[in-house]
Amino acid sequence: MMLSFFDQFMSPTLMGISLIALALTLPWILFPTPTSRWLNNRILTLQGWFINRFTQQLLLPLNLGGHKWAIMLTSLMLFLISMNLLGLLPYTFTPTTQLSLNMGFAVPLWLATVIIGMRNQPTVALGHLLPEGTPVPLIPVLIIIETISLFIRPLALGVRLTANLTAGHLLIQLIATAVFVLLPIMPTVAILTATVLFLLTLLEVAVAMIQAYVFVLLLSLYLQENV
User: Fold this and answer.
1) pLDDT given at position 106
2) pTM of this prediction exceeds 0.85
């Protein structure tokens, strides 16, 4: 039984070919494309308003040098939200429950922020490894600690997204299994459990959006330190 709970996190295959590439491509197909008309429909208007508001909030603490990342961060935000929400549908696969995929997003982008800091302002970037006013005997220890915390950042980004989505999917499957088991035995308890399942599903929708936002927000904060 325990193995069947984790089967949903296995990458789907067809004739020995992994379908994760198809799962990564599908979200981009679902987005409505802008038209050349003077007036857009409500979906396009809502999409444009959401992208503008998110971009403004994301770039608010950044200087002009960080605004070059606006398209990349906004696209990543929409991509993660789409994959997280599509993964909540029945009989679907969520690519963002794979740690390898999340690390593939986190490590290159984090490394890019570090390289930009080292290239543009190496003194300031290295100064983050040693807080101001540190006692002399603690300098070697703090440098080691800050260096470790710097390299843990991409791991924390990937593990946070993977763990939150995996835990939510497991909870939904466990409670749904309990509903089906309790329905013929104790219908009243099964109805109460189904209510909890519905509320948990709403919570997971919020978590799917919040985790995508937190992922991109932390990347923007790392970028802010280095531009």
Assistant:
1) 92
2) no
Count: domains in the chain:
1
Amino acid at 200: L
Task: Identify the DSSP state of 34.
Answer: P
Full domain range(s) for residue 72: 5-223
Distance set, CA 162 to CA 97, 190, 215 (Å): 5, 30, 11
On whether the CB atoms of residues 196 and 167 are closer than 8 A, the answer is no
Cα→Cα distances 160→11, 42, 56, 112, 214, Å: 20, 34, 25, 20, 9
Question: SS in 3 state form for 169-216?
Answer: HHHHHHHHHHHHHHCCCCHHHHHHHHHHHHHHHHHHHHHHHHHHHHHH
* Helices and strands (H, E) in the chain, number of each type: 8, 2
pLDDT score of 34 more than 70: no
CA distances (Å), origin 81, targets 7, 56, 208: 23, 18, 6
Q: What is the 8-class DSSP label of residue 18?
A: E
- CA 188 to mean position of chain CA atoms: 37
Structure tokens at 50: 């959401």
Does residue 120 surpass a pLDDT of 90? Answer: no
3-state SS assignment for residue 29 = helix
Place of tokens 């070697």: 140
- The pLDDT of residue 100: 85
